[in-house]
Amino acid sequence: MIMISACLLGKNCKYSGGNNENPCLIDLLKDKKTLPVCPEELGSLPTPRPPAEIIKGNGYDVLHGLARICTKDGGDVTESFLKGAEAVKKLAQSHPINLAIMKERSPSCGVCKIYDGTFSGKTIPGLGVCTALLKDLGITVISEESPLSPEILTLIKESESSYPFINGFS
Q: How far does Cα 103 stand from its chain's mean position?
């Protein structure tokens, strides 16, 4: 089963109220079991919501209490992001997840890069808090921007087939 950021499948859960629908991914996964997740919504954040960025760190730093996740106006939403990441972790532990495809640059789902915490649009190398937890579980995590290597294509091919999308939202 493949866990995927719900916004990539067209769910309007992005901070702005929109989505990041990726038709290529939807087509690639059309006959696979998927578990769409939005850590921010699972963390009880509303949609739409103010944009948030990790301040002075990455997802691992947030998990260890060394960095916070704040909105542009200074609101601290760290606890909501942690709550959502923990909810996704529980879903991953209760389903046979062999791959996660997450939204790059997100403070929850970023895989290789996240915004730098200045709300300037600049990115830095790093990962989001949810991605950090998934990696700690030993799950292979890629972003929608990752090249599809033979190893990743094998994981997708080996994923259980012929089920519609499974709604991972509470």
A: 5
Q: Looking at the domain assignment, is residue 169 inside a domain?
A: no
Instruction: Give me the number of domains the chain comprises.
Output: 1
Confidence of residue 161 (pLDDT cuts 50, 70, 90): low
Range(s) of the domain holding residue 144? 2-158
Instruction: Please choose, from the candidates 80, 56, 66, 165, the residue with its C-alpha nearest in 3D space to the C-alpha of residue 130.
Output: 80
Q: Does 49 map to a domain?
A: yes
In a domain? residue 151? yes
Q: 154 pLDDT exceeds 90?
A: no
Residues 95-106: pLDDT tens digits? 999 999 999 999
